[in-house]
# Entry
Amino acid sequence: MKPRKDLITIESLSDEDIHTILDSAVAMKEIFTKSVKKVPALKGKSVLTLFYEPSTRTRSSFEVAAHRLSADVTTFTLATSSVVKGESVHDTIDTLMSMKMDYIIVRHKNSGIPAVIARHCNASVINAGDGAHAHPSQAFLDAFTIREKYGEIAGRRVVIVGDIRHSRVARSTSLILRRLGAQVAFMGPGSLVPPKEHTGVARLHTWDEIFTWKPDVIYLLRVQNERIDSPFFPAADYHQAFGVTEERLRRIEAQGMSIMHPGPVNRGVELCDAAMDYENCLVCNQVENGIAARMSILYHLTPGTLSHD
Amino acid sequence: MPQLTSTDIASALEHWADHIAACGESEPPGLVGLISHGDVLARRLVTALQKRGVQAQYGAIDITLYRDDLDLRKERPALRSSYLPFSTDGMRLILVDDVLQSGRTARAALETLFEYGRPARVELHCLVDRGRRELPIHADYAAFTLESAEKVHVHLLETDGEDAVLY
Amino acid sequence: MTNTYITNATWAITGQHIDLCLCPAAESISTVFLDEIPLPDVKQAEAEGKMEIPEHARVIDASSKLLMPALYDLHSHIEIPGRSKRECIMRAGEAAIRGGVWGMLVLPSPAFCFDNGATLDSFREAATVRSVADMTPAGCISLGMRGLEQAPYNTLATMRGVRILSDGEDFPSNILMLYRAMQYAEDLGLIFAVRADVPALTEHTYAHPSVTAYNLGLHPCPPCAEEIGTETLIRLAEATGARLHLQLVSTAESVRIIRRAKERGVHVTAEVALHHLLFTHAQIGDYDTVFKTIPPLRDQADCEALLEGVKDGTIDCIVSAHTPCSPFSKKQDFVSAPAGMVMLDTMLPALYTKLVKPGLLSWGELIRACCLKPAEIANPREQDEGTPHAAPLLLFDPQVSNLVTEETLTCGTLNTPFLGQELHGAVTLPLR
# Structure
């Protein structure tokens, strides 16, 4: 893999980069099986998590990944920072860079912020989700999980169900799966699925169409009402129209399809309770693989703070 | 460029296996190859030991994450999966590598190994010892010693299509 | 003061050659027609024994150059956040003259909130002293541009000579306020310059619904917001009899709506920003904030329909929509960065390079849309309705090409889409 400072989008990676990161993630996962779940690869390196949006899962996953690579982790907490006082991102980063950080893991509600930070500092910047733009580490853990389950991603069919319009997960995950040769379709309410001319991804309209299409994986997106300023759909309808109901779960079981979800799951909205106990529900695998994928990402980036002259 | 041929390597491996079998204790040893090349040699040695009635265990470790030169490289090497399907606690382990030089790889290998458990004894075996040590590490067994060679390239059938040592 | 004479010029509109003419003072040109040379050719007059060239007269050789009226811009913001008002006025004036623009309508902004006589007076005073270009302020529609209650139109119009009202580009949040304002201001002959919009539909949106918006995760700005707004404004103008000027028309459907309104005789004029004729959302690329505009850059089909609208007169004017943004503010992320481009510095060379030279627009169409129509709407020299307005002339040398760099920009900021590009044409203005 060519030296790379930042990971902002899946688009920016070559096919070789994607394969290298996925392959190394497998090796990273083996570390979890040792009695000492830690390797010294990033010993003495400083990792900063800078989350402008609340997220317990992604942040902890990155923190565990950094710890397992022996890096030191600093958490920049929004509530105690001057960010709330309207400080510009540039000034925040200048302050943080004087603390000599090697890796900055950033999440922000504005699409495009990680790229701005990456241009502005020599630390490796990892996009942990920016607006509706991209969430590349999620894409890697999803691809890793599907590859682990099916051996090969090429030729698999994955349908992503839910709020595509506001979902960075839908964008990044559909992109990496398509790059790896999978067929992807979107399904969701009309107000939340942009037209195929914009997405390049076919749209299915109903669960019946999903069952006819016979996907290997059904990927449910989280309904994020907190991000939607004005309602796009009647919330009371969602489970019946777009969720995995018990009746649909029986059909999913009968066809042996897998269920994935980026978490946290709204039980009774995207998934019925029984779906969480279904043997091919890969939600917990996704969480475990998330750490391995993020270790691999951290390991393969080269911060500008290391000089190679 | 002078070289050792496949015949040289084959007979060296036989001697090597004899040596391991001769030093045998009651428990069969575990052979842990260093990826890549060391794992291929370890696999062949395990087969050779089987013929001598010694049921040695096979393992392979990728030591990349323990290297001391990661920050000196512009790009990080791709990782390979380690394979250590047995408990190493209390075992006699033999680290197998193709070329022993500075000793830095062996140091990293030791660190890697000890995170899997606490072996009773660890030996270091290699195909070629070419001297130039930078650390207080020595080989317990070396099939060939090429201390004056400027460069040493080990080719193995499984990874490079032929068995040869070029120096 | 000696007179200046121009030799060997080509009259841009008709392509006619002018041997020798007297360069007139701006005030004295009161007739600029599309199909007729407004200047007496001195040689011809001399031959007829009517005129002589004085011995020490200044003569400009205009071989291979075009002679044409200078441009008037109906849509400029001149505030640079963080800079003094005097500096903003001076730099905008210099930039305008470099781009062939002799005068402009300055829209109200937080720094120049033209909702009272005193602010207008102080701006006019400063502009007279500091600006080399003519600057006419547009009065506010609402107090403080807040869209809630009307500004004192009588004072602005009768005491301070304001002809055009605008709240920058904001659509009044209270439509009843606008309706009553239009009724009230009808007798004053004021023009309402408004950008059509439905704010509830466009709040927190940053790009045209497109591949670009999807890939970059930018919330899409539906074109129907502008189109509903256009219909709404036209209905209000029809109902109240007020003069309406639609700012920054950006969609093909808006052009069709305006065309239909004009056909049934509504008093409406419309403008398009040069960037909406030249660029699409694809230019945003990987979040290039220079191409963040309100309304957003749209599809190629919209660009084409807008240009067609300019050519057939549905769209009356092409405007600069000049908006200086500090380099730091444009370095921010796409969502946080302010919208707008600077255009004055490069106005005529860009129009020539991107539209006239490739044959998309004729000189006649350009001069109608950038010189005659806008000046007629703004009527900056306060002449009686019906008489052609005055405009100074400029010389344009299409042979020269210039690289747009930080050094060549005088407007004070760098948010131009042409930075690092070659643009054809050099402007000589003023001529005397």
